[in-house]
Structures are given as C-alpha cells and as structure tokens.
Amino acid sequence: MDEKALADLVVGHVVDVPDFPHAGILFKDITPLFGDGAAFRQVVDGIVDHHGRSSFDVVAGVEARGFLLAGAIGYATGAGVLPVRKAGKLPREVLAASYALEYGEATLEVHRDAIEPGQRILVVDDVLATGGTAEATLSLIEQAGGIVTGFSVLIELAFLSGRARLAPRDVHALLTV
Ligand code: AMP
Question: For residue 54, is pLDDT > 80?
C-alpha cells in the first residue's frame, strides 16, 4: 500500500475528540483502527515496509497504545518486543527517564537488563505530539547501550514540532496533520 493510501486509511479510522483529557486538547482516538483487522494489518505492514524487516532486533512500544503496535510488529517480523512502561509498573530493577508534561512531569521505565548493548531498536507509538515521550524513550534506550534505528507513529501533530527533538533519526508518520 502506498503512503497516500496509508494516510487515507488512518484518516478514515481516527476519531477526533475535542477537550479530552483536558480542555483545549484535540484527542486522536485511534481505537477504530485497532478494531478493524484489515486496516490494522495494513498499517503494521506499512510500518515494517518503511523500515525494512531486518533493520531492527527489537520493537519498543510506549504504554499503552504503543504496546498494541509493538506486539503486532514483533509477531510480523520475529523481532522481540520491549514494553516501555509508566513509572512503578515493572517488578525488577529499572532504568528511568523523566520528561515534562503540560502540567508536571512523567517518568518512563524499562527493566535495566532488557536491552543488550548494540541492540537495534525501533520505537513505536500512536501519536507524536511534543516529542517528550519519544525523547524519553530514546534516552532510556541509549542509557542501556541500545541503538534507536527509527521511530514510527500513526499520527504526527506537526505543529508541535516533536520530530525536531528526535533529529537526526528517522521519524516515520503514517499521517501528518
Ligand atoms: P508527546 O510526549 O507530547 O509527544 O505525547 C505523545 C504521547 O501522548 C503519546 O503516547 C500519545 O499517546 C499521547 N498523546 C499526546 N497528544 C495526543 C493527542 N492529541 N491525541 C492522542 N494521544 C495523544
């Protein structure tokens, strides 16, 4: 499927929800995409085709919607899956990275032994907004000696300039708005 068709597919399966979870936020609800088996398979294949199935050893998914993409990409390619979790969820020793939210701060964690030095890791999530989440994920992976080979998101909110924080790495968005 070409890039235009993939972007149209995402457009057709996203619902814009005004003022969720806060006033002034236009929430991109992509659950209809996960609920349509054929569309979900097309976007997973689109992500894998963009990066190439042998370009990464592990796919990191950011809690929680990123887990759905990462699980499918891992199964499709034979790559391992790395869950990047919100603080306090993992049972063993962790690496942590904190980042600023609109109000306050959030922390992401991975198990300290989850990444091998030199391991090539693709990072996936549903939406790239300010890039804080993706940048914290990058920091976690690099702390552990891993190499981020690229990022994929279903939707990039270009007006928030998140990709600038990830430069010069490959940031792939199926749909840019
Ligand atoms: P950011 O760290 O600002 O790039 O925000 C990205 C994270 O917040 C992703 O994990 C998204 O799931 C979520 N997110 C941010 N903005 C939105 C939005 N407008 N609609 C849906 N999810 C969003």
Answer: yes
